[in-house]
């Protein structure tokens, strides 16, 4: 069995299509989507419709902070994100907005916790950026394995009994065995707006027997996605981020 884990699609149709196609070529049997389907990119409605279709076929889909902000203007964002969200709200219909509003903040599947931001307070949207936050999240939850997004940069954190958390960045395409003697927190990176100086879309592949995680990078039409952002009148910095992966 294998699961494709995707997060932070951010209205980027080209990146999402490329990752879905790659996962299906690999024979993935299930999709788990960890939120932030909208914001920043030029195709929010299309992305939401694809997520709805995946859920109808058995996928897990969670809510991210940008998804929550569609119906909650009190969620604070930086000026660029706020401008993109104002534009996005005008491009979603009632059903799409209701779908995003109804998504859960987290999900548990056996010994796995899925969440957009962190395990200690999913709705506060705090980031896991260091081993300190990773350990806080792992110690808060009973599940041995946590999978999250939010930071847009792939990272693996691990913790053994009586030892502090460690971290390392997974190499693209190289499977990492997830030893059951440790707790693990995996930050997936971003499908639609990577920020680790690699513009290729990023998602995670989880395989079983033995359990292992692979960070997958998928090149896509960044120039086309950036051109759509410019044509929509969204901030230029959002187009540049796609081209530079930052």
UniProtKB/TrEMBL annotation:
Gene3D superfamilies in alphabetical order: 3.60.21.10
Ranges for domain Calcineurin-like phosphoesterase: 1-207
CDD domains per the UniProt record, alphabetical: MPP_superfamily (cd00838)
InterPro entries assigned to the protein according to its UniProt record, in alphabetical order: Ap4A_hydrolase, Calcineurin-like_PHP_lpxH, Metallo-depent_PP-like, Pesterase_MJ0912
Cellular component, GO, one term: cytoplasm
Domain of life: Bacteria
Pfam families associated with the record: Metallophos_2
Family membership: Belongs to the metallophosphoesterase superfamily. YfcE family.
Full protein name: Metallophosphoesterase family protein
Organism of derivation: Alsobacter sp. KACC 23698
Organism lineage: Bacteria, Pseudomonadati, Pseudomonadota, Alphaproteobacteria, Hyphomicrobiales
